[in-house]
Amino acid sequence: MNERIRVPQVRVIGADGEQIGILPTRDALLKARELGLDLVEVSPNAAPPVCRIMDFGRYKYEQSKKERKARKRQHVMHVKEVKLRPKIEDHDYEFKVANARKFLERHDKVKFTVTFRGREMAHSELGRKLLAGVVADLADIGQVETDMRMEGRNLVLLMVPKTARVAH
Q1: Per-residue pLDDT tens for 139-148?
Q2: 168 falls in which pLDDT band (50, 70, 90)?
Q3: What is the number of domains present in the chain?
Q4: pLDDT value at position 90?
Q5: In terms of Cα–Cα distance, which of 168, 56, 159 is closest to 110?
Q6: What domain range is 41 assigned to?
Q7: What b/e string do you get for 145-163 counting C-beta neighbours within 10 Å, with b at 16 or more?
Q8: Helix/strand/coil for 85
Q9: Quick one: 139 and 119 in the same domain?
Q10: Closest by alpha carbon to 150, among 119, 120, 100, 115?
């Protein structure tokens, strides 16, 4: 921009978007200064390079404003963990599934962990039945991303929200 433009001639576009034409760089810079604006190189690879007369500070400000607005609208997907035990009571199970439903509605991933202690390891099928019930209860809002697998003493399942839910 401005004095950093090192080519002898440039194609100039005015502040209102109309083409001024091909001018020597020095003349284009003087024209921009008269208007109290900057001469900014828009397309350096063209022959001759294209420059625009604009308020560069305002342009940078508007770009950062757009970026902030876009960042505000985006949703970062978090992984929420719901811990279960193989001998869980009905009310506790319903409570944890309801929490998992809330997480999936907020478009977060949910990791279900069934922890086995001591002799419970011999009955891992109880944990598999439990997680199969969870998948069935949440099938309307979520889908399985990573199927059940044993990680040491834990049985782990990862669910994600359904991207395109069908409206009834």
Answers
A1: 999 999 999 9
A2: very low
A3: 2
A4: 94
A5: 159
A6: 2-70
A7: eeebeeeeeebbbbbbbee
A8: coil
A9: yes
A10: 115
Same domain, yes or no, for 39 and 95? no
Is the CB of residue 127 less than 8 Å from the CB of residue 112?
Answer: no
Same domain, yes or no: 12 and 55: yes
Q: Tokens 């309307």 identify what position?
A: 140
pLDDT tens-digit readout, 122-158: 988 999 999 999 999 999 999 999 999 999 999 999 9
pTM given for the model: 0.57
* 52, burial (CB in 10 Å: exposed 0-12, middle 13-18, buried 19+): buried
Strands across the sheet containing 19-24: 19-24, 9-13, 50-54, 38-43
- Burial of 108-122, coded b for 16+ CB within 10 Å and e otherwise, reads bbbbbbbebeeebee
Residue 2's CB is within 10 A of a number of other CB atoms, namely 15
